[in-house]
Amino acid sequence: MQEIRDAILAEQYAALADLEVPDHYRGMTVHADEAEMFAGMPSAEKDPRKSLHLDEVPTPELGPGEAVVAVMASAINYNTVWTSIFEPLSTFAFLRRYGRLSPLTKRHDLPYHVVGSDLSGVVLRTGPGVTRWKPGDRVVAHCLSVELESPDGHDDTMLDPEQRIWGFETNFGGLAEMALVKSNQLMAKPEHLTWEEAACPGLVNSTAYRQLVSRHGADMKQGDTVLIWGASGGLGSYATQYALNGGAIPVCVVSSPQKAELCRRMGAELIIDRSAEGFRFWKDEHTQDQQEWKRFGARIRELTGGDDPDIVFEHPGRETFGASVYVARKGGTIVTCASTSGYEHSYDNRYLWMSLKRIIGSHFANYRESFEANRLIDKGLIHPTLSRVYPLGETGQAALDVHTNSHQGKVGVLALAPEEGLGVTDQEKRARHVDAINRFRGV
Description:
about 450 residues
């Protein structure tokens, strides 16, 4: 592994084809025999530092249509938090199901799960049938793993019955020194970004693109008023950029002055600090406060000059969903993914059915959408929102930051990269965008 890292750091990419792929590597794992370690504990008290382990694991067999990538950097997504606290269920159920599909997928059904759904790195080997990628290619990976043997997935691969999120519903994820991916997960690394910057957009950038821009999501157009929950967070920070970049008008909902300032740095002007303004959408655990919905709607109209949101970019879930349905304009769209505050949504259906609103479910993105989202990063039209970087051995702390919402933007993790700031090969392009690239750093 040291020889591989040395070759990459020396930019001797052609030499990688001649180096042996190690038979083991270090990766962040959860263990099946610890799946009940947090049983009975409230979610907020579950600590990813206790369940995530840096282990030596065997290198998996390389199959047709696959690639092994040397991982220079990765990032934390909320699915790694879910994996680490075994909610809403242990991911070993996903691995067992995948393992039953074929002798090849049986590799994934193991008593440990190497996690992570983002990476930047360099291709080491490709399996039979791979023609587009070769050893030495600098890449990032999106997290859609799909079999595509069913006709259902050939119009939109997200509808394939064997669609999975790599590193969450499959094994051998990106929070490791090497990763196993399907070759159609790979995309060219934007050359003006460091390894850690390039690793952090993948999942959230593609998710925001489909959810907001794609015809499969809200199909946002110029002039749309877009309400964005958590607008400075991992997902919302990309939604804010897409709204601004696409000629829409974002109304950014945040929870602190610092997060409001980040939205201003991105160019947003209409901002609601829900903590400062005291919005509480639930009277108690079982009762929502419709007067707060009305107060929230009035605040939005005050900012927009009387307009209700054409689109609500919804991902907190249970805590906010009732308010989201209420405040969307007549005929408007609530587009939802994730549900980080709870999966059981409740809302007053009168405000949906009588006002002809639509709820659209959106989940990650297909390869084309991911490619387009990465292309916008490469063009310097959308920028990484990386705020902090940890070494691989401190992935548990990085996941805790996300679990407790004590982060901004995205939290990165160095794998084979020995330090931050490496991997840039287009300094001229970087110089044009460096202020935007660094907007979230150190916040």
